[in-house]
Automatic annotation (TrEMBL):
Single GO BP term: DNA repair
SUPFAM superfamilies associated with the record: P-loop containing nucleoside triphosphate hydrolases
GO terms, molecular function: ATP binding
Highest taxon listed in the record's lineage: Bacteria
Known function: May be involved in recombinational repair of damaged DNA.
Annotated organism of origin: Flavobacterium pectinovorum
Name of the protein in question: DNA repair protein RecN
Keywords for the protein's UniProt record, in alphabetical order: ATP-binding, Coiled coil, DNA damage, DNA repair, Nucleotide-binding
Limits of the RecF/RecN/SMC N-terminal domain: 2-505
Length: 550
């Protein structure tokens, strides 16, 4: 339960610290005094989004801090899962900076808003007038029935499986579409792949072929140049070899006279050796040269094939063609495997369908068992709230569609008076009737929920007198199991509280401020008397207030 709330620089509140107790707490105050500000502050602590308009003084940060006693609510696992420090007295703090940025902390550990919102589901339920209208929504009606049916764990398992089922269905549909669209594509890819496979391409092949082509295409010119070079080198009297040997002989005679001449002799010797090697390679090259038109044609054809493939695939190298070939092989293989994948997914979907149907059947049966319990309890409570002839007709309609909570559709029909036909809640129930039905629902759910705190924000809309007294008594009964707050304008409900807080607004130095104060017994008598008679409190109003409190 919430044990204290501290607010600084929020809306009309400059600074406020208030402690709360267990049981039934009342919050009253005139319209516009700031009751919604208190709820807004609690909402921020529970993870609602904020902006700069929340700041009273735009130059200072807003800080809202709430302390919760959670030792009895088995929340250690949540804290461990989210890597948070657990404390029986857990403190949640929310800060809104002048820059507009927001920060949140649980026991001084920074957290994001989603984590706050997740934790809030275990701490407080704030019932607003909007929630009363949501009672006519089918999803809300299902939540009520499922809470009584104890369907929570089963629905979670169902939802997990449904997510996997939808993923499989999505994959299957994509594969079927791909299979349908890929007929011509598969044929074309296979054709392109076969072209490349037949070409038997190798990395670096193009460069080698281009060299071979130049040799074969110019064999006569090459042979003539090499042979001429060999003649010049080997001519008996004037060839290069002869002249180099003459130079070596001449230099050898003077090597003893100077290291310089010895160096020159060694250099010319090296030249002679190198030239001899070049000459031998020229001889080998000459012997290898053949005029081979057939080979030339083969090389030319292979090069042309490579050029054509490069042009077709808009690339410049054989390596790029080889990559395209590998990609095409993967595509063809992938499409070949589609049928196998489709068969595997179809089998998985069939199995999940069987499991989903089993979960749905269990959920459906639990709901069938819970509906009479809910209907009887609602009627029992509402009879005491001035609706003696109320009836409910809740019909489960089986469907073939997998919804988020099973395969049921629901007709939640209502009749308030004898002789009137059943109708949809939102069409036939008045505002006062909706308020009473919602209170009855909350009173029933309180028996099945371990939620620490419930805040009713003007659930008494449209009721008064004896009905208001009974509504107050029901909330009082609920407070034996959980902490209850009621924001109310009705003195009959206000008198049922164990403690009473008043929200008021005042002006100090041209500055409007809201305050929340715990009333003493005497102050409470005056407050309830004012709720009965207005600003001017009469003796009869005071006596009436005392009577209500007693």
């Amino acid at each position: 339960m919430i044990t204290s709330l501290s607010i600084k620089n929020y809306a009309l509140i400059e600074k406020l610290t208030i402690d709360f107790s267990k049981g039934f707490s009342i919050i009253t105050g005139e319209t516009g005094a700031g009751k919604s500000i208190i709820l807004g502050a609690i909402g921020l602590v529970l993870g609602k989004r904020a902006d700069l308009t929340s700041l009273k003084n735009k130059e200072e940060k807003c800080v809202i801090e709430a302390q919760f006693e959670i030792s009895k609510y088995n929340l250690k696992e949540f804290f461990e899962t989210n890597d948070l420090d657990y404390e029986d007295e857990t403190i949640i703090r929310r800060e809104i900076l002048p820059s507009g940025k927001s920060r949140a902390f649980i026991n001084d550990s920074p957290v994001n808003l989603q984590e706050l919102q997740d934790l809030s589901l275990f701490l407080i339920d704030i019932h607003s007038q909007q929630q009363t209208q949501e009672l006519s929504d089918e999803s809300v009606q299902f939540k009520i029935i499922d809470a009584i049916a104890n369907n929570g764990e089963t629905i979670l398992s169902y939802q997990k499986l449904l997510k996997e089922y939808k993923t499989d269905k999505s994959k299957l549909n994509a594969l079927l579409k791909k299979q349908s669209d890929s007929g011509k594509e598969q044929e074309y890819n296979t054709f392109l792949l076969n072209e490349l496979v037949v070409a038997k391409l190798k990395s670096g092949e193009q460069e080698e072929l281009e060299v071979d082509y130049e040799k074969l295409n110019n064999v006569e010119i090459i042979k003539e140049s090499i042979d001429k070079s060999l003649v010049i080198a080997n001519e008996e009297q004037f060839g290069v070899f002869h002249n180099l040997n003459e130079i070596k002989t001449s230099l050898q005679k003077i090597t003893a006279f100077s290291p310089e001449y010895q160096n020159l002799f060694e250099r010319i010797t090296s030249v002679a050796i190198e030239f001899d090697d070049v000459s031998r390679e020229l001889q080998n090259a000459s012997e290898k040269l053949l005029n081979d038109p057939v080979q030339l044609e083969l090389v030319s054809q292979k090069l042309q094939l490579i050029y054509n493939l490069q042009k077709k695939h808009q690339v410049n190298t054989v390596d790029e063609l080889l990559q395209i070939q590998a990609d095409l092989e993967n595509k063809v293989l992938e499409l070949d495997n589609i049928e196998e994948e489709i068969a595997i997914l179809a089998k998985s979907i069939e199995q999940k369908t069987t499991e989903l149907d089993a979960f749905s059947a269990a959920i459906h049966q639990n709901r069938l068992n819970a509906i009479p319990v809910l209907s009887n309890q609602l009627v029992s409570i509402l009879e005491t709230l001035g609706m003696p002839n109320v009836r409910f007709n809740m019909e489960l309609l089986p469907s073939e569609t997998y919804f988020q909570n099973g395969k049921d559709e629901l007709q939640f029909l209502f009749s308030a008076n004898k002789g009137t036909d059943f109708g949809l809640l939102k069409k036939v129930a008045s505002g006062g009737e909706m308020s009473r039905i919602m209170l009855a629902v909350k009173a029933i759910l309180a028996q099945y929920s371990k939620l620490p705190t419930l805040i009713f924000d003007e659930i008494d809309t449209g009721v008064s007198g004896e009905i208001a007294i009974r509504m107050g008594e029901i909330m009082k009964e609920m407070s034996a199991k959980m902490q209850i707050f009621a924001i109310t304008h009705l003195p009959q409900i206000a008198a049922k509280g164990d403690s009473h807080f008043k929200v008021s607004k005042s002006t100090v130095n041209d500055d409007t401020q809201s305050e929340l104060k715990l009333l003493s017994q005497e102050e409470r008598i005056v407050e309830i008397a004012q709720m009965l008679s207005g600003a001017v409190v009469s003796d009869s109003a005071l006596n009436h207030a005392k009577a209500l409190l007693n």
